[in-house]
Amino acid sequence: MRFLKNRITISLVVIFGAAYAWEFYIRPSTGVLYTAAVSEYQNRNYDRSLELLRKAYRIDPNDSAMLRLLGWNYLKKGAYPEAVANFSRALRLNPKLDDARMGLAYCWLEMGETRKALEYFQQLPAADQRSPEIRTAMARAYRLLGDNQTALQLAMGVLRENKEDKLARKELAFLTGSEDPEAVEATRAESLPRPSSLIVPARARNESFEILQDGGWKRVYLAGVNLTPAVPGHFPSDPPNEVTVYLDWLSQIRAMGANCVRVYTLLPPAFYRALMAYNAEHAQSPVYLLQQVWLDDAPDGNLFNQAFTAHYEKAIYKVVDAVHGQANLPFEKGRGGGIYFADVSRFVVGWLVGRDIEPHVVVTTNLRNPGIQSYAGRYLTIENGNPTEVWLTRQCDAVVRYEVEKYNWQRPVAFVDWAPLDPLTHSTESRMVEEIVMRQKLGEKSLPLLSAPVDDDDAASLDPTKLKPTAAFSAGLFAAYSVYPYYPDFMDLDPHYLEGQDSQGPSSFVAYLEDLRRYHKDMPLLVAEFGIPSSLGISHFNPAGWNEGGHTEAQQGEYLARMIRSIFETGCAGGLVESWLDEWYRQNWLVRDFELPGGRTRLWLNTLSPEANQGLVGFRPSRGETHLLNGDAGRWQPSQLFYQKAPGAPVVRSFGDSYDAARHLLRLFVDSDEAYLYLRLDVERLDNDGDGTPDWKEANYLFTFGTTVEPTGSVLLPFVSNVRIPSGADYVLRLGEGDQSKILLASVYNPYKLVPVAGIPEQTQLRYRIPFLPSLAEEAQFDEMLVEPNRRRYGRDGHMYPPVRYSRSPLKWGTLEPGSPDYNTLAEWYASPKANMIELRIPWGLLQVADPSSLQVLAGIDRSGTFYTETTEGLQVAVVSYRPQTQELADVLPRFRPPGIIAAEDLKRFKWAPWESVTVATYLKDSYYVVQRALQELRSPRKAERARAAVPKGRKRP
Question: Which of 132, 174, 577, 954 is most exposed, with minimal Cβ within 10 Å?
Fold first, then answer.
């Protein structure tokens, strides 16, 4: 899609071709249509231009001028296969048409057929190839093919002629991280001479990290963040390439009080340029870097696969070269590429090898390589290790060895570990095989079949204390763990951890850290990843409230602050928050099945997904700064008016009391964006008894939604007597007193069912209905939207831990107006008596909209358990007001037909426009400022000393 915004303006080429074709090719019968199509194309009305061309095509399908213009229109719209078909046909009719050849080159470039694109570019006349536009496009092609030097030569050639050429500057940024050709020239360097003596800029020693500063060693506590630079609309494989973006982030990170950033893989050159530039201006307070070398999935789960190991070692060498500013790397999906000139090696405090490896990979590797238990490297050794530990030791040794041999530098190293693979034993965790045996003994039928690898959380371990440095390795080893307060389940179930206390109350997190710290003794322990989400949805519960989701931004910050203090107080060497940015693309296990197609999650925000809402920096969707649920009618546009009562139209039924005005519906507005469906309901008067609040005891409101193309849901509505929607309601949303405000799902559109456990009928389990096909029922039950974040589990002693379920149906009250007493970043609705309006924002996920960007809604589950979707024709919406005591209808939008019908012909569908790109506003969450205060406290020597002195001493595991 970048072509549609950034590639050359081809209008002049087409217009010239059109004039030539007019004189020599076009028949008079199609000339008027063609001329009009050219005009529409020039005005960027591509759909209208195509409409005219199709009419002309029916008259003369062999006109090459029309075929070319069809191709350019399709190209502009991003319909590349259609463009290719028309350009190719035009060339077959007339092989001399260079503009068609040019169009094909751009099509193949956008479609990833880079060699084909380059072939077509090279077939163009020499004059065309010398144009800045074509040279820049060819630079992109060479870059994608891994020939960075040729790409750089082409881009720099364009910029020497015009240093303001926007496209060439962008291409230069992809290649080098900078849009400035003079800056690139200034930093281009030959290979640096290898120092004669070993340089150690950082070391791990005495439970801490130390930095070489002014000739001496200075202890540094690493407080930082994890950075995955995937902004909305993009995957991590397509990160920003602008130095300014990374400079802004680094400035905000340092202003928060953090001094370290961890990156999971090699980032684009722009990041390292930004780090070098920032630290050059902030020499007394730099941002340090923990650089990880990402580990892909091993073939068949065996890390010792020879080709896999060789590929990973090459990845290690590339990363080491890049941080030393000595790399020219082809672009790889999910990894950085380009020409790395920025030498940031003095700011790298440690290498991280691997990733949070799944337990089944460790089990598989160990089983397939049973004889491998030791390794003696030049810098690291291991004895009596399991095969996976040995493999990781080899890779850690490879990092150190390569950096010393090529650059004579050395720094601390660790492999990435996490709680499921810690070296501790957790009795509340049983392997799935063990659990199945227990369940079978209890009489359970229909037990799961273990056909796929199972990731048991205490079935294997990785122990960093087994790694030993040789005399040649002075930088030292450290342990790096990902630790979360809600996962694995032993954090929620182990009695010892549940007894944990920090200064603010119960904390399994601090108890676990104490155990981990004791086990690792003198080795520096880095909590390389910890966090808690600010999502509406919850995917795991913790008894003390440290849940995976369900927290406001302020609550997220308070929990993070507690974790920050606990990490420091338990004697760890540092801690890094996960994560800096909200990551829209990430999918959570509890919502993944409902996000279809999954590859489009980057284009919309699912607030039910904790993983997508874990950052300190958020991204407001396009309407997020407009609809603040604050009663401001001026923020709504006339174009968003959906239904309106005729002036003077009365309520459907008057009860003759003073609350008729509360039941009188006037207008409904509807809007949407990348995260929510927004609604605004205007009534005559919300507060009729003068108590300053809406008259919930006398007036309730019921919104109905139909999402599918065919009629589904319930014809008869709940809560209000004898009101029918023949086309069906899939959802109803009730607004009333207290906890009565909920969104409910028609049972015939509910993919879940609660069933007894076969053989143990006193227990129940929440399962998908397989197969599931939504249907229309005269009177369907409306269900709470129940999910099960914590499944039923069994400890090794046979103790059963029941499942934990919750309903997503209750709606959270509040406003998004900071400073208001009702401020709540999770708010879903708000009623303003002053403005006589009710506002709602409903997350797409609560309506089972599987992908709002392509209008996909849940359509069913087939017999194999595969979820499938359909393209909606829009959401069918109606609103009813009623007396809650008697359930008698009062009023209806759009209209009411006797006897008690809201007819399909009266109902409108709200259909929003699909999208392929995202417009968002970046903001610092409330949690950022809470974390900032917590880190400021750590920087106060007296407060820090008091905090360390307060650490409980001598507590042992029972």
Answer: 954
CA distances from 60 to 15, 31, 56, 506, 519 (A): 20, 11, 6, 79, 81
Q: How many Å from the N-terminal Cα to the C-terminal Cα in the chain? A: 60
Contact 822, 814 (CB under 8 A): yes
* Contact between 141 and 117 (Cβ < 8 Å): yes
Give the bridge partners for 755, in sequence order. 765
Residue 375 CA to residue 371 CA, distance in Å, equals 12
**Residue among 869, 851, 874 at smallest CA distance from 773:** 869
User: Running DSSP on this structure, what letter comes out for residue 581?
Assistant: B
* Cβ–Cβ under 8 Å, residues 122 and 109: no
CA angle 561, 564, 567 (to 5 degrees): 150
- 202-247: pLDDT as tens digits: 999 989 999 999 889 999 999 999 999 999 999 999 999 999 999 9
Domains of the chain, start order? 2-187 (1.25.40.10), 202-427+461-618+934-949 (3.20.20.80), 623-910 (no CATH)
Contact between 540 and 909 (Cβ < 8 Å) = no
Task: Quickly tell me which residue has 């004189």 as its tokens.
Answer: 23
Spatial CA neighbour of 94 closest among 56, 121, 68, 117: 68
- Amino acid letter for position 417: D
Residue 336: which pLDDT band, with cuts at 50, 70 and 90? confident
Strands in 634-675 per DSSP E: 641-644, 665-672
| Burial (CB count <10 Å: 0-12, 13-18, 19+), residue 309 | middle
Give the C-alpha separation, 541 to 666, whole Å.
42
Alpha carbon separation from 207 to 210, 219, 257, 422 (Å, rounded): 10, 10, 22, 18
Dump pLDDT digits (tens) for 555-565.
Answer: 999 999 999 99
Buried residues in 368-400 as b, exposed as e (16+ CB within 10 A)? ebeebeebebebbbbeebbbbbbbbbbbbbbbb
Strands 288-293 and 348-353: parallel
DSSP string, 66-83: HHHHHHHHHHHHT-HHHH
CA distance 291 to 294: 9
- Are 712 and 775 spatial neighbours (Cβ–Cβ below 8 Å)? yes
Q: Are 53 and 46 in contact (CB under 8 A)?
A: no
- For the chain, how big is the Rg over CA atoms in Å? 31
Question: Could you tell me if 204 and 220 are in contact, meaning their C-beta atoms sit under 8 angstroms apart?
Answer: no
pTM: 0.92
Q: Are 40 and 53 in contact (CB under 8 A)?
A: no
Give, in degrees to the nearest 5, the angle at Cα 465 between 464 and 466.
90
Closest CA to 576 of 119, 221, 912, 326: 221
Angle 196-202-204 (CA atoms, 0-180°, nearest 5)?
125
Q: What is d(CA 236, CA 121) in angstroms, rounded to the nearest whole number?
A: 30
